[in-house]
Design goal:
3 helices; alpha+beta; disordered N terminus; five-stranded mixed beta sheet; 10 strands; about 15% helix; globular
Length: about 250
């Protein structure tokens, strides 16, 4: 299974995904990034990376959020304490503004980039067991030379520290999957960079990720807008006082 770098290059696209949007200096909102190695929502960042791929593969291509450059469908299939931010798996203009609405109270998994291998792909992305898959993914991911990330214009310290190798996980390729293979359950391992943002306050957030891959003339940069929407509270009408029982 190819991850962001290899899937997007395989489609003739860019090799990373990000979040971003226009946020004025006075509106800049702080965020808290979960430190490497710490869990959030009962799972590590490496496990959330695996869940990201299980989520992405499970949705048919025709409605898959990763093929919607507008961001309007990014909520499809989302549940639980972490919102999995979609990538862009389709060719888009350089000035694309991917807007994604996220509910208040959930964390965000931000994938920076990476490479994965599976038990159903041909070499060099094939592995027959966990050890082979991990070696395959790491060998390919080593082509990432550098990365920079900003959130609302503030640089994230050393994005390369957020590298992780997932545990062995399964992928359920269902009907209409974007790999266009017959339905099958496969094994996979991903070596990737990504981090979790603890539930941010309502507002707009700009994330900009710039990745430099071996063999490329310059870095790959993408920008999206993440809009965290406050929860809506609807107060019911007052309950009438019950009449006393005679």
């Amino acid at each position: 299974m190819r991850t962001l770098r290899s899937i997007m290059l395989g489609l003739g696209l860019l090799a990373s995904f990000m979040l971003g949007g226009a946020v004025s200096a006075q509106d800049t909102l702080p965020v808290e990034i979960v430190p490497p190695g710490e869990e959030f929502g009962g799972a590590s960042a490496a496990e959330w990376e695996a869940r990201w791929w299980q989520w992405a593969i499970s949705i048919p291509a025709e409605i898959n959020p990763n093929f919607d450059p507008t961001g309007g469908s990014c909520g499809i299939g989302q549940f639980g304490p972490v919102f999995l931010l979609p990538g862009i798996f389709t060719e888009v203009p350089d000035d694309v503004q991917h807007r994604c609405s996220v509910p208040e109270g959930v964390g965000l998994y931000v994938g920076i980039g990476g490479v994965g291998c599976s038990s159903v792909e041909p070499p060099p992305y094939f592995g027959g067991d966990e050890a082979e898959l991990a070696a395959c993914a790491t060998g390919e991911a080593n082509a990432m030379e550098s990365s920079s990330v900003t959130i609302n214009g503030v640089a994230v310290d050393d994005p390369m520290q957020y590298r992780h190798v997932t545990p062995l996980y399964t992928l359920n390729f269902g009907p209409g999957n974007f790999y266009e293979i017959e339905p099958v359950v496969a094994l996979a391992v991903t070596d990737a960079w990504g981090f979790i943002i603890a539930p941010p306050a309502p507002g707009e957030y700009e994330l900009v990720i710039s990745n430099q891959w071996e063999g490329m003339d310059g870095p790959i940069v993408t920008t999206y807008t993440i809009v965290v929407t406050p929860a809506t509270v609807i107060e019911p009408d007052a309950t009438p006082v019950a009449s006393p029982v005679a």
